[in-house]
Write a structure and sequence with these properties.
The chain is an alpha+beta fold. Helices cover 25% and strands 33% of the residues.
Length: 196
């Protein structure tokens, strides 16, 4: 039996991330999530119904919102584009159901799981850390739990998803930029290391 040789992009920084995280702000990697890019015409009720049947949830249609069912999240990226995120072991099933259900329609279904890793950032100072390198208005009135956006963090492209009010975030970042973004976050967290 072949050994699983996958290695997450942030494995070399995992000990540092653990050591430098605090209650006030903590950074972790959430490796190997299924990430599937879906493009289809959601204005067509038949397409929406087929996507709903394949995903067991409706596609979010409001800009920069997220739908959730259990461990599965669907992030709105554009009027006809979404990112489906779930546990790695769900990837094959999601791809198969989307491909079969949307076969009659014009669509694009691309597995991007190996393209990005996910960085988790949480704690009462997480918003302040992100604000150092992100031009989005991250105030809870403008960007709260259940919101997402494609943006730049320290000039690196990311998809930012606020998963909780604490606040907690997921940053979906390309593997080639992951170490840079994680190191930048660790540096931006430095002023909060002596706080609880």
């Amino acid at each position: 039996m072949a050994e699983n040789l996958r290695r997450s992009p942030l494995a070399p920084l995992s000990a540092r991330m653990h050591d430098e995280s605090r209650d006030s702000v903590s950074v972790t990697e959430i490796p190997f999530l299924a990430q599937i890019n879906l493009r289809c015409g959601a204005t067509d009720p038949a397409v929406r119904a087929a996507a709903r049947a394949a995903l067991d949830m409706d596609l979010p249609t409001q800009p920069n919102t997220v739908a959730r069912a259990g461990d599965r999240f669907v992030l709105w990226l554009g009027p006809d584009e979404w990112l489906v995120v779930d546990r790695d072991e769900s990837r094959g099933g999601i791809l198969g159901r989307l491909s079969a259900g949307l076969a009659p329609f014009h669509r694009s279904i691309v597995d991007l799981s190996a393209n990005r890793t996910t960085i988790g950032l949480s704690g009462q100072r997480a918003r302040a850390v992100l604000a150092k390198g992100c031009s989005l208005d991250l105030h809870p009135r403008a960007f709260a739990s259940g919101r997402c956006a494609q943006t730049l963090i320290a000039k690196a492209q990311v998809i930012l998803h606020q998963t909780g009010d604490a606040p907690s975030y997921r940053l979906f970042v390309r593997g080639s930029f992951a170490r840079y973004v994680a190191a930048w976050l660790l540096d931006a967290m430095r002023e909060f290391r002596n706080t609880a």
